[in-house]
Amino acid sequence: MTAVLELCAVSHVFADGSAGLRDCSLALGRGRRHALLGANGAGKTTVLQHLNGLLRPSAGQLLWEGRPVDYGRSGLAALRRRVGLVFQNPERQLFSAQVGEDVSFGPLNLGLDAATVRARVAAALDAVGLGDQAGRAVHHLSFGQKKRVCIAGVLAMEPEVLLLDEPMAGLDAPMQEELAALLDRLAARGVTILLSTHDIDFAYGWADDIHLMAAGRCIASGPAPVVARNPDALHAAGQRQPVALTLHAHLVARGVLPVGAPPRSVDGVLDALRCQPFTSTTKTPA
Known about the structure:
Number of strands: 10
CATH class of the largest domain: Alpha Beta
CATH topology of the largest domain: Rossmann fold
CATH superfamily of the largest domain: P-loop containing nucleotide triphosphate hydrolases
Oligomer: single chain
Strand order of the largest sheet: 6-7-8-3-9-10
Order of helices and strands: EEEHEEHEHHHEHEHEEHHHH
Largest sheet: 6 strands, mixed
Helix content: 25-40%
Number of domains: 2
């Protein structure tokens, strides 16, 4: 796997002396969908802020395509053009009065011409389903709409890596499905995606790779089907096994389903059940 962005034995100590990360190593394969899971306080947000250069390691290194990141002004600017971060709370990221103004802020700071900025803003808003909202006041938006504006603002920068901190939090089920579809489209275009989440079922079904955090360290990384079947690592990270895996194992143990690779979702398990040639045991009256 070629890592586009990588933390190598990174530790971080905050100003109050508390440890945010402890010898944490994590690599993002280019063009892959990554999910970061762990209990509250495990260090997920701290990882994202290091990957974007908002925080600097107290020890260890951040690598971009195998080379140490330059934390000078130009080096950080180059990193943030390539690596976009969407915060969990949209209020931390929105500062313009109108939607279109907010989304255009990043491209304008890149020094792009007006026509290019307009095109990027329109494409980004269309991507998040807000193509007709450019002139709307930000304070009139719902929480979910504000989140989508934040994502549009990052997409307008056309990053190679997209980091999202708890993007599904506060969204209803249809909006979560829309966001997942958007992330899938971005991944299909080659964008590397890392999102933090508490939803192991979503991570198991959506991600190519899962990374588990505990006490400031990444304790397990790998393909989602492999990590999700590691009960010790899941427990250490405060996670349960995905429902689809548990359900599939019970059905296989009872001979209802054949032994084989488990589906990645409950819907997949149900589809497998529908394909089974069940024989009725009800007796026909004489």
